[in-house]
Specification:
By secondary structure, the protein is mainly α. It has 39 helices and no strands. Helix 4 runs parallel beside helix 6 and helix 30 packs parallel to helix 32. The N and C termini lie far apart (about 95 Å). The relative contact order is 0.02.
């Protein structure tokens, strides 16, 4: 601090001999007029410099006005000059002006100056405490804000609405729900329970802490929630993954007659996107048009994203084509929509037309290429990025590493690794996981271990462990993969992807008992048996010839996807009789009518294993005519196994 506020105050409050007064009142009036003239011309610095050079005090209202202007313009040097002049030429500076000084220091980001002045104040009032608590709260120092609030209570000062607004905000920043509940109790104790601002803040805090039950109860206790209250509860449900509940709260808001904010519309539309609620999204769209929000950039971009996520690219493009709605956000949304739906050519054409781009735009296009394994196009796009833009972030690096993995280009991956090291991305976990995946896919176990043990060891997460586990599994290092799993449980919690990988490992080494243990572990601990895990279980039990055990004893309910996986596994292992049994059991035991893909699997099974008599009987007795791909497979099988008669029949059917 340029001037030590506390020491100046303590020294000057008890030493009045140095003080001077203007020899004529006209001097003060002239100086004040000059200062105000500078202010009216927008010259705050000149105004403060003039005051600072004047050896007599001014009216307190002028100091107050100047502190306000310093706060608004974040002028730290001018704030220090004002404080110095105030405490030098005023024997007992009024508390309210010292409070304004604290507020100004806080706005300028100088919390050290603010705290020093606060600590050295000979007297404080509630405003002083509020100013200091607010300074910490808005200065991203929530722990100090809560600590100062405790000091305030010990000093015997009662909090008011302003105090609680800052304290509740700090609770949300530290995400300590038990602290929030204590503050909530004090809000009620001191009679502020009906305050809509504090109630909304409490809803926000409980929502941030993941306690939506408490958030909802507080919200329902607000007598007349305003548009901010509704926006908070909609947003918090959205962030907790409860998209439909967010939409329902938005509907309640409309029924209550409260006009939504543009961000509330946006949150409602994002909620519809999150649960693919196209019907509800269209209704929100209709309300937005009715209320005149169709030209709002935030709303229009959310509409485009909603239609894209719900698979309605035509509707999204129709909104994008409306006049005055094309901006960087909407351009990026529509490019991302086409890219992530597989229409990368259309996406690239739109990308090339973009009048401006940012790193998100570049990432959206690159993500489309990588998602659909268009590695050459992705590589060319990376070269374009290299020659065109300096915009790059951790997402860009992760996508580039995916391209290296897809191309199995470890040398390019090493170059990217060097860039990551030189530009300070080594501590980024997302990038570290990308490196781990890339080296694993490129079969470079040595560098995988280097990344694992040195680069990301302090911050490894479940994704990191899964990447290493997958790396070992893909390289058929099954025993090592099992060891990694046991080590993983000491550091983090496995997820469904972990177990799907482990089940594949067990299938590869025919470890039926270990697979059963993993399956049982998932059931006992409430893990979801999703499509990926079910497929891995089917693969395990099929390879270990225990599929009936899975269906009957473990209660797996098979569907057409399950049987497709079983038949594919039988084909890979050459288990003709077993595959035949499962195909027949689809309809006889499980009431599942075989689909086209199941017949294709059986044709592949018979063809690959050379069971030509069975193949001919199967094809001739199918309940529909064989398709062109089926006949093509039959012809190829007949050529390989020398079955001329059946081959001629298949060729004739193809020609017809």
């Amino acid at each position: 601090m340029g001037v030590k506020a506390g020491s100046v105050i303590n020294r000057l409050l008890y030493d009045k001999a140095h003080l001077t007064k203007p020899s004529h009142p006209s001097e003060a009036k002239a100086a004040t007029a000059a200062i105000l003239s500078h202010l009216s011309s927008g010259h705050l610095r000149k105004a403060v410099s003039l005051l600072f050079s004047t050896p007599f005090p001014f009216h307190f209202s002028l100091y107050s006005h100047l502190f306000h202007l310093c706060s608004s313009s974040r002028s730290l040097l001018e704030t220090r000059k004002l404080e110095s002049h105030l405490v030098t030429f005023s024997p007992t500076p009024p508390i309210f002006l010292l409070n304004r000084t604290i507020e100004s220091y806080a706005k300028c980001g100088s919390l050290g100056d603010a705290r020093e002045l606060f600590d050295e104040m000979p007297q404080r009032d509630g405003g002083s405490w509020n100013a200091m608590i607010k300074a910490y709260s808005q200065g991203s120092r929530p722990d100090e804000a809560l600590g100062t609030f405790l000091e305030m209570n010990r000093a015997g000062f009662l909090p008011n609405e302003v105090t609680f607004a800052s304290v509740i905000g700090s609770c949300g920043a530290v995400l300590e729900v038990w602290v929030a509940r204590q503050v909530h109790g004090l809000v009620v104790k001191y009679g502020f329970g009906g305050n809509v601002i504090l109630g909304s803040s409490l809803v926000d805090v409980y929502g941030k802490c993941g306690e939506m039950g408490d958030a909802r109860r507080v919200f329902e206790e607000i007598e007349e929630p305003n548009e901010v209250s509704w926006n908070i509860v909609v947003r918090r449900y959205l962030e907790m993954g409860e998209g439909m509940e967010a939409v329902m709260m938005f509907v309640r808001m409309l029924v209550a007659g409260v006009r939504p904010l543009s961000h509330t519309f946006s949150n409602a539309l994002v909620a519809c996107s999150s649960c693919f609620a196209l019907v509800e999204g269209k209704r929100v769209h209709g309300v937005a048009v009715k209320m005149g929000f169709e030209d709002d950039e935030v709303v229009s971009s959310s509409l485009i994203d909603m239609y894209v996520k719900c698979g309605k690219l035509g509707d999204a493009h129709a909104i994008f084509d409306q006049p005055h709605l094309k901006n960087l956000i909407s351009w990026t949304s529509i490019v991302s929509g086409y890219a992530m739906s597989g229409q990368t050519s259309k996406a690239r054409a739109l990308f090339d037309e973009m009048p401006e781009r940012n790193v998100i735009s570049w990432n959206a296009m690159l993500a489309g290429y990588t998602r659909y394994f268009q590695w050459e196009e992705a590589l060319n796009f990376i070269f374009l990025m290299q020659n065109t833009t300096r915009d790059i972030d951790q997402v860009t690096l992760g996508l580039i590493l995916n391209v290296c993995a897809g191309l199995s280009d470890v040398e390019m991956g090493k170059q990217v690794h060097g860039f990551i090291y030189r530009h300070g991305y080594c501590s980024n976990l997302f990038v570290g996981n990308g490196l781990l995946y890339m080296y694993g896919q490129c079969r470079n176990m040595r560098n995988s271990k280097t990344v694992w043990f040195h680069q990301i060891s302090p911050s490894r997460d479940t994704v990191s462990w899964n990447s290493l586990l997958t790396c070992y599994a893909q390289h058929h290092l099954s025993e090592l993969a099992m060891i990694i799993f046991y080590e993983m449980q000491c550091e983090t919690t496995p997820n469904e992807i972990t177990f799907a990988t482990l089940l594949s490992v067990c299938a590869n080494i025919f470890a039926l008992e270990q697979g059963k243990q993993i399956h049982g572990f998932m059931i006992r601990n409430g893990y979801i048996i999703d499509t990926v895990v079910r497929g891995a279980l089917v693969d395990l039990y099929t390879k270990c010839r225990s599929i009936k055990y899975a269906f009957k004893d473990e209660g797996i309910k098979p569907d057409h996807i399950t049987f497709r996986g079983i038949l594919y596994a039988c084909t890979c292992e050459g288990l003709v009789e077993l595959g035949k049994q499962y195909f027949e059991s689809m309809s006889t035991d499980y009431g599942i009518v075989p689909r086209l893909e199941h017949y294709e699997c059986m044709i592949d099974l018979y063809s690959q294993c050379g069971y030509m008599d069975e193949l001919e009987s199967f094809v001739r007795t199918m309940p529909f005519d064989p398709t062109v791909p089926m006949l093509t497979r039959v012809v190829d099988a007949c050529k390989r196994h020398g079955c001329l008669r059946f081959g001629k029949w298949a060729v004739q059917r193809l020609n017809n």
